[in-house]
Amino acid sequence: MKTIRIGNGCGFWGDSVDAPIKLAQRGRLDYLTLEYLAELTMSILALQKQRDPNAGFAGDFLDVLGTLTPILAQQSKLKIITNAGGMNPHACAHRAKDILHKAGLTRRIAVVSGDDLMPNLDVLLAAHPFTNLDTGENLATIRPRVVSGNAYLGARPIAEALAQGADIVITGRVADASLTVGPALHEFGWKADDWDRLGAASVAGHLIECGAQVCGGLWCNWHEVKDWSDIGYPYVDLAEDGSFTISADAGPGVNRETLAEQLLYEVGNPARYLTPDVVADFTSIALETVDARTMHVTKARGLPATDTYKVSIAYRDGFMASGTLVIAGPDAVTKAKLSGDALLRRIGHAFDRSNIECLGAGACAPGIFSLLEGKLAGRASDGMANPSLARPANEVVLRVSVHDRQKDKVERFAKEFAPLVTSGPPGVTGYTTGRPPVREVFAYWPALIAKAAVAAQIEVLS
Amino acid sequence: MNINPTLATFAHGRSGDKGNHANIAIIAYTQAGYAWLRDFLTAERVADFFAPMQPSKVERFEAPNVWGLNFLLHDILAGGASRSLRIDTQGKTLALTLLQMEVELPLNFHEMTRKERNP
Questions:
Q1: How many domains does chain B have?
Q2: How distant is the Cα of B110 from the closest Cα of chain A, in angstroms?
Q3: What confidence tier does A39 reach under pLDDT thresholds 50, 70, 90?
Q4: Which fold, A315-441?
Q5: Do A221 and B53 touch (CB under 8 A)?
Q6: What is the ipTM of this complex?
Q7: What is the DSSP letter of A115?
C-alpha cells in the first residue's frame, strides 16, 4: 500500500529555527509542514501589513527556507506546505522565490489565499452576524475596532495547488491539521466524502501540528527524556487507507503516553473535533506500539464536515503592561503582596483591570494552592507526599499587570516599578530590564461563516 | 504527615487553551486506573477543585480508547491568551495543578500505577 511521509518541523511562530533543517536532513520526508499561526498572530501581522504593504507574514519562514536550500538541492522531491503567508502570502511567496532563485533552485511556488475577510467584511456582515461563539454577541458591537478577520480554510486548496504542480505551498490562515490533510488528499485522491480517511489524516495532522509536543515535549514523564538538547520533531507515515505510524527524527519518539497527551491537547469534545475538512472522532482510533519510539494508529472515523468555516477575528481592546520585581528573604510573599498593592495605590488613578501575582507561590493556579501555606508544595513528581519539600517561599517574583482603554494611564503605571527598589520593604531587587513595555491588546472573537461565502484562491507563481 | 497519593500517582495529563476556556486531559496509566478515574473524577469534583478560579461551567468528555478524560473549563482563563493579566494566560499548567489533587488510596491501587514503559 502506498504511504507518504509528512513531518512537521515548526509548531508555532517562535519555535526552533533549527528543527525544520534537522527534520528535513534526517527524516527522509515527502512533505515538510511548517505551522506559524496562533489565534492572535494574524492581528499582529495585519498591523504590520498596514504599515508596510510588503510585510505581514511569518519572517522566520524565509530564514528557514534560506537554510534549507542545500537540502532542497539534494532532495529534489521534498515538498513544503506552510501557513507562513499569514496576512500576506503573496509577499511571502515572492520573497521565497527570490531566495530559491539566488540558490539556483527551480521550484514551483503556489499561494493559497481567500481566507482574509477584511476586504469584504461589511458586505459579509450584512448577511452573516459573526456571532461570538463564546459570548453570543453580534460583531456589530465592536465593528469599528476590528483589525483582522480570517476564515480557517481547509485541505482542498492545498491539494489543488499540489495538483497544479506546486513544490512549495504558502497559505494564509488554514486549519493546522489541514496542512497534513492537503498532501494526503492530493496523493491518494480520496473522495470528498471519504470521511473516515479525512478523519484519519486529521488525527495525524493534529498530532504533529504542535511539533515536539507529541514526541517528548511537555511529556509528564519528562525524566525519561535522555537528551533534551535534541528532543526530535515528529513525522507520520500515512497509508492510503488512513492508517499511519508516527515517530520522530530524534529524542524519545512517540509512545502511548506522549500520543495520548497530544491527542487531547486543546480539544473540546474528542468525539467531534471540527476541522474544515471533516468532523474527526478522536475516540475511535486504536493505538498499537510498534517499538519504543513508534506508534501505529488505525480505525479512525470521521463524520461529514459542517457547512461553516471557523472565523478568527481580532479587535482593538485597549492597552496592557506587566512588570516584575524580585522579592527575597523572610516573608517574601507578604512583602510582595504589600509592594504590589502599594505600587497600584501610589498611582493616582484606577485601571479597568489589574492583577498582583507572586510567581513562585502558586500564581499559575491562583487560589488553588500556595507555597505560603506549604500545603501542596511537598510533592515529588510521582505525586507521593514528601514533607521535606514543603516550606514557605523565601524568594518570589512580584508581577503586577494592568489593562486600560487609555494608553497614558498604562504608561504612567510602567513608571512605578523602579521607585519600589528604594521605597519598598527590604529584599526588593531585579529591576534591571527597565520600564515594562506598554502593548496594545487585540482581543479574540471566534465566529463562523457559511463555506459558500468564502472562496479560496490558488495562484501558482510563474 | 500526609500520606495520601495524588492523581499523578495514577494518571498523567496535559492542558491548554481554547479562547477563554481551558481544556485539561487526565489520562490513566492502566485500564483499571481508567475505570477508577471515570467514577472518581467527575465534572463536579473538578469544578469544586478549581472553584477559586471561577469557571462558569465544567464539561467532561470521555476518550476510553486512550484511557482519558477531557475536561473543558469554561471562562477560567481571565481573558485568555490575548487579554489575561495572569502569568499562565493559556492554562498550560492547569493539568499539573489538577494532578496534585489528593485522593484516598484506592484498594486496587497496585493495578493502577504506571508500569515500566517498554522494558
A1: 1
A2: 14
A3: confident
A4: Alpha-Beta Plaits (3.30.70)
A5: no
A6: 0.97
A7: -
